[in-house]
Specification:
Helix content is 54%, strand content 19%. The chain has a 6-stranded mixed barrel. Strands 2-12 form a two-stranded antiparallel ribbon. The chain has a two-stranded antiparallel ribbon with strand order 9-10. Helix 2 (18-54) runs antiparallel to helix 9 (260-303), helix 11 runs antiparallel to helix 12 and helix 11 packs antiparallel against helix 13. It has 14 helices and 14 strands. The chain starts with a helix and ends with a helix. Residues 70-80 have low confidence and may be disordered. By secondary structure, it is α+β, with helices and mostly antiparallel strands. It folds into 2 domains: 3-51 and 264-399, no CATH class; 84-253, no CATH class. Keywords: ATP-binding, Cell membrane, Membrane, Nucleotide-binding, Transmembrane, Transmembrane helix. One of its GO terms (molecular function) is ATP binding. Its main location: membrane. Residues 21-244 form the MacB-like periplasmic core domain.
Length: 401
């Protein structure tokens, strides 16, 4: 019996027991679809986070107050002490570095914004004119914060599109006055709609000069400092010089300076490992499907005893009988894997339509691994039924004993 005859015989056996074949294919297809969908979700989360960080800016270095400990607990934390604050003078001192093009200090707080009878609570972001270029923001109308001495408070503000729409409606916002807390600010510009970025919705923010934000919230501290290096090659130099300058000013190393690439690489590693883990968990279902195939094929051996006995009586050697069962299992697994792949892609497409911001898509290695694992599992678990069928005595098999 050549390969074509063997393939035809195996496909005929599968067609002869359609219910059994469909059940085994369904079990295997669900396993493959689960791997494809879960890895697509994991990969979508990775792409989303990477995209969000990339949108923060280019050649970016971020300074946080407090030093990230790599081991143990800082004694100061046990005593309830807070890390030393970053202040505006720290940000200004960073311009001593030849690797830094510009900086944008960030101060943040929440205030009540009102325009006549309309009012709502808003996030107020204090920064400088450099923020527009560093964060790649786009103005929809008017102008951004003015250049000048960052230590001087100015009663001007820039609104996100949603804040402008809710507080001013059809009224022209640019040139109007807006009350934040107990202070009045003139609206000089409106940001173009940009939506969420790292959990921060720029459409719902009010941006004021950093000195104005300090006056509004009665503080002098900064949440963080964004630094833009002069070029990609100078990112590391900008990070090291920023750390050196702030260490000299504070008398100790009490800040954390990270590059955008380092943050991206960290998230990329974490989310890639997460994708691999969920794919591995989902692949357990393929093993379960393999066991189901083995059990069903063992039953099939007992049901096809006469058929096997007839083949052996006609001269089929044990190796040929084993080959028949292997081909049958391989054909079954291949069809089920392809069906599961299609099912998984359909599921991923539906999830992508339901959550358009999540770039759902299974990585090629996950699809390949799912198909190979399903095929291998099906063939592996057919070994025992094939051996049992090959060991049947033809006389006893024909007599159904």
């Amino acid at each position: 019996m050549n390969f074509a005859d063997t393939l035809q015989f195996a496909s005929g056996s599968l067609r002869g027991a359609r219910t059994r074949t469909l059940l085994m294919m369904l079990a295997m297809a669900i396993g493959v679809a689960a791997v494809v969908i879960l890895t697509a979700l994991g990969e979508g989360a990775r792409r989303y986070v990477v995209g969000q960080f990339s949108s923060l800016g280019s050649n970016l270095v971020i300074v946080f107050p407090g030093r990230t400990e790599t081991a143990g607990v800082s004694p100061g934390m046990l005593l309830g002490q807070i890390p030393r604050e970053l202040i505006l003078e720290d940000a200004q001192a960073l311009m001593r570095s030849t690797a830094i093009r510009r900086y944008a200090p960030l101060a943040i707080g929440v205030a009540q914004a009102s325009n006549g009878a309309l009012n709502r609570e808003v996030v107020v972001l204090g920064s400088t004119a450099s923020l527009l270029a560093i964060r790649h923001m786009v103005m929809g109308e008017g102008s951004f914060l003015p250049e000048g001495d960052t230590r001087i408070a100015s009663p001007v503000c820039v609104l996100g599109t949603k804040i402008s729409r809710e507080l001013f409606g059809t009224q022209r916002a640019v040139g109007s006055w807006l009350r934040l807390g107990d202070r009045r600010y003139r609206v000089i510009g409106i940001l173009a709609g940009q939506g969420m970025s790292m959990g921060f919705n720029t459409d719902e923010v009010v941006i004021v000069p950093v000195a104005s934000a300090h006056q509004l919230f009665n503080t002098r501290s900064l949440l963080r400092i964004l630094i833009e290096a002069k070029s990609r090659d100078q990112i590391i130099a900008a990070r090291d010089e920023a750390e050196r300058i702030l260490t000299e000013r504070h008398g100790e190393r009490d800040v954390t300076v990270v590059t955008q690439d380092a943050v991206l690489a960290t998230f990329d590693r974490i989310l890639s490992a997460l994708t691999l883990a969920v794919g591995g968990i989902a692949s357990i279902s393929l093993a379960v499907a393999g066991i189901l195939i083995m059990n069903v094929m063992l039953i099939a051996v007992s049901q096809r005893t006469q058929e096997i006995g007839l083949l052996k009586a006609l001269g089929a050697p044990p190796a040929q009988i084993r080959k028949l069962f292997f081909i049958e299992a391989a054909l079954l697994s291949l069809l089920a894997s392809l069906a599961g792949w299609v099912l998984g892609e359909i599921g991923s497409f539906i999830i992508g339509r339901l959550y358009p911001t999540l770039p759902v898509g299974a990585p090629w290695w996950a699809v390949l691994a799912a198909l190979v694992t399903a095929l291998g599992t099906g063939i592996l678990f057919s070994v025992m039924p094939a051996r049992r069928a090959a060991q049947l005595d033809p006389v006893l098999a024909l007599a159904r004993r």
